[in-house]
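Slide 14.
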Amino acid sequence: FSVSCSLHQFCQTSRLVQLLRKGIMALKFDRKKTDAVYDAMEVEKEEKKDFTSLVESSIAQAQDSLKATGDIKSALEMLFAVEKQTRLASDIPATCEVALAIVNLAADSKNWDELCNAFGAVVKRRAQLKQVVIKCVTRVIEILDLEPEEAKKVQLIETIRDVTEGKLDTELERARLTRQLAAIKEKNGDIIDAAELMQEVQVETYGTMERREKIDFILEQVRLCMDRDDMVRAYILFKKVNPDHLKDDELIDLKLRFYKLAVQLYGKRGEDLEQAKCWKHILDTKSAKDNAPEAAEAFISSAVMTVGRYLLHSLHVECQE
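Slide 15: predicted structure.
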């Protein structure tokens, strides 16, 4: 029995030694493999190609080709071929330069459809660098601001919104363009589409947007919902604004807008006491105190709402008694 136990222990020990040897060999192999990968990366880093001369010559050649033939497609094809090389090499400066050249060349051709197509193609390229996307979006917005024709502006805004959907790096620009598009639709009498466009944007989750712009955006969402008589959604959006954030003197204009919208909203909901409180907040603002007509309106409205509420409450108590 003792001999069999000793043999069993010996076998277990031998098995353990074998496993340890295999583990050590595997570690050595992984280390060699890791060292080889790092060496390859260092060699690749040292042998990284400089695209400066290629980019400069290609841009100049594309510009000359466009001036000579007027063929924007051929000129852009030259630059797209270079953009592919720089993008696959992860050369950020070179790729940014080529991408901006593509956008500028399409804009210089005065062909709005070609500009939208070229911009969309650059931004949507496989494994496109985020720096390239940001620079291209910024440049196209600059071009957009210089365009007086409304139809072209709408087309380009919709293109930018389409290619930037779901991209966190350009969420702020997309929100601003959405508001701009909603303003155009509202001006043309399409309140429903304008309100629905604005409701798509959840600016309260944006960390890149400043507080003032964020509150202003939400108040615009509330106003459009009220204009289309969607009080339920307007009230939900209205509750996203914290009144404590409106105490700064720099936000007095937004505070007045907030409480004036609240007066209308609570009026639609039949909440007279809340209306009276809102008028009281308006009366307490420095802007209202400095403006005599506005202060008088706020005071009278607050007094009427409060007294009316008190009389209704007294009448209700008497009726119960």
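Speaker note: The two ends are 100 Å apart (CA to CA).
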